[in-house]
Amino acid sequence: MRNRKGERPIEATAPRPFSIEQYNSRTDRRTSQNGPLAFSAFVFAVVFAAVVAGGFAISGRFDVWAVVAAFALACLAVMTIHIAMQWEKVVVLRFGRFNRTKGPGLYFTIPFIEQTALKADQRIMVTGFGAEETLTSDLVPINVDAVLFWMVWDAEKACLEVENYYNSVSLAAQTALRDAIGRASVSEVAIRRNQLDQELQEIIEERTSSWGITVLSVEIRDIVIPQELQEVMSAEAQAEREKNARMVLAEVEKDISAMLVDAAHVYEENDVALRLRTMHLLYESVKGSGGTVVIPSAYSEGFSDAAFNHMTDALKAKG
């Protein structure tokens, strides 16, 4: 397309498809740091102001050493006094070894001796993962997108047993998805979605339980099959339905033919039944047409007086 001034044409770009990696990268998981940072700044300001004010009250003037001492004490206070948000568990190490877990709320550490190793978010986490161009057991490449719901139940294990528990869970889920797809055919993947969800949950749970992480659920979002294969599968499904319809029709025809054979035997053994059937068919024809019906000679014989008398005698004889 060309703009109004006749300048260089502007090419329209197609929208980029949704990407699991983009979703995971743009997810903001740093919201829990705003509160602790504001609290640390507040502690620093309060301690610094208190020490400077105390030095001024003692010496009667602002001294450089008082400012330096205030800055040092404020830094020590920031390294000592901390807060953890309601959804956080903090892992504290002493001399590099695990000492305790704290939080939520206010907690204290010894400067230079104890360190905060990890702040584990114990809310339900949502991780998107997928498998692109993954071959099924019948060698069909498909794309599958899924969502994993999980949470950290043991902050100590999440800190000590794995380097980065969030990325580890994502990679473990992706690997489990690829393995599950490779063991199933394309039709099984498309039809057995609920079974695939349950299988993935059990496999990921087995791998992440040692990291202090529990898997709540796994949900398959989308399964993309190549367009050529979709047409073939649609034709196969239509052929299968047509086959079933023909089999049902054949069964019905078989039952009808068997009933007609039985009726023929009855009519062969009883002329009265045959004539009554003839009269019934003629009555249905007249009733359906609502007018005059031309009766062939073979049918009219059933309405003659001789035929009626013969029919009466036959009924009396059988009675």
Keywords:
Tetrahydropterin Synthase, Chain A, 319 residues, 55% helix, 3 domains, single chain
Helix/strand layout:
Elements lengths: L19 H7 L7 H26 L4 H17 E4 L3 E7 L2 E6 L2 E4 L5 E8 L3 E11 L5 E12 L2 H6 L4 H18 L3 H6 L1 H16 L4 E12 L2 H43 L1 H19 L7 H4 L4 H14 L1
Antiparallel strand pairs: 1-4, 2-3, 2-5, 6-7, 7-8
Provide a descriptive summary of the structure in words.
With 319 residues, the protein is an alpha+beta fold. It folds into three domains: 29-120, no CATH class; 125-225, Band 7 domain (Tetrahydropterin Synthase, Chain A); 270-319, no CATH class. It is 55% helix and 20% strand. The protein has helices at residues 20-26, 34-59, 64-80, 155-160, 165-182, 186-191, 193-208, 227-269, 271-289, 297-300, 305-318; strands at 81-84, 88-94, 97-102, 105-108, 114-121, 125-135, 141-152, 213-224. The strands form three sheets. A three-stranded antiparallel β-sheet has the order 3-2-5. A hairpin with a 2-residue loop joins strand 2 (88-94) and strand 3 (97-102). The radius of gyration is 43 Å and the shape is rod-shaped. Residues 1-20 have low confidence and may be disordered. Belongs to the band 7/mec-2 family. InterPro entries: Band-7_stomatin-like (IPR043202), Band_7 (IPR001107), Band_7/SPFH_dom_sf (IPR036013), Stomatin_HflK_fam (IPR001972). Keywords: Membrane, Transmembrane, Transmembrane helix. The chain crosses the membrane at residues 37-58, 64-85. This is Band 7 domain-containing protein.
